[in-house]
Amino acid sequence: MWSPCATAAKDIKLGSSVIPGVRDCSIAGQNLPLIVVSHGFGGSYLGHRDTAETLADAGFIVVAINHPDDAYTNEARFRDYWALISRPSDVRRLIDFLLGPASGPARIDPNRIGFFGFSRGGYTGLVLGGGQPNFCAWFSPCTGSNAERCTHGSLDVWSIHSLVHDTRVKAIVIADPLSKMFPTSDSLRLISVPVQLWGSQFGGDGVFPEDVATIARSLPGKSEFHIVPRAAHFAFIRPCPDELKKSRPNICVDDASFDRVAFHRDFNQRVLAFFRQQLGVGERP
């Protein structure tokens, strides 16, 4: 969790990351808007921490989740397609907890909840907002390369009736969503909340620019679409420390013509502006 804090930030070491913050700082303010952050395939709750920090500094409470079925911490499960069913439920349970047992002195405004998701997290946001994915068209039959990931049963399991939508989510930002399973506008016709959609020019990791463009054309209502020139899929993950660049160059190293640090400065401000506008959050002094 990131939240507004009146105490000056210090460096906190978490694994290979150094995060500015204050552990267990008293939350400054009440009735604050909430943003839930959902990572991509095999990711973690730290993958978008710079965006979370920007939002928290501006007066939002931000909570990022490790999805149990496909976070990096669960190698036995994260290659299983079951995560596509469980992810929206993870978010609903998290919101239930934050508004219930963890609510404290009414820090969160239940009428101002937003969502940020990358890759599979983007897919998660589309489902939460009312999207109806067509799983059968995407990976039927469960044979060959699909067999390992279809271990939880037949295609009867992959039913839209098993999916969770959450009307408490009032605004959605999604970046390079896994979108092959939303092939037509009918798949997204029930989404009524504002959406800010981002797509990389080159895609990657199973996300194709043409599929993201289909999402942009299919979204009803209030939506905006931004294409990031010269960017590949993982450009939406926070700039990596040098240690991680060496161990995970496929995720951390961009084309020489693309400046991830500069992009994230602009990206985070645009995400902040969208959530401010849609959730009724004014400029802070």
How would the blueprint of this fold be written?
Blueprint: E1 10-14, E2 17-21, E3 32-38, H1 49-57, E4 61-65, H2 83-99, E5 108-118, H3 120-128, H4 135-139, E6 169-175, E7 195-200, H5 209-218, E8 223-228, H6 242-247, H7 249-252, H8 260-279
Parallel strand pairs: 3-4, 3-5, 5-6, 6-7, 7-8
Antiparallel strand pairs: 1-2
Q: Percent of residues in helical segments?
A: 25-40%
Question: Major sheet: size, sense and barrel closure?
Answer: 6 strands, parallel
Shape: globular
Q: Indicate the radius of gyration in whole angstroms.
A: 18 Å
- What share of the residues does DSSP label as strand, in percent? 15-25%
SS element count, helices: 8
Strand order of the largest sheet: 4-3-5-6-7-8
**Separation of termini?**
23 Å
What is the helix/strand order? EEEHEHEHHEEHEHHH
The chain-level structural class is: alpha/beta
**Total beta-strand segments:** 8
Give unreliable regions as ranges: 151-156
Mean of residue pLDDT values: 87
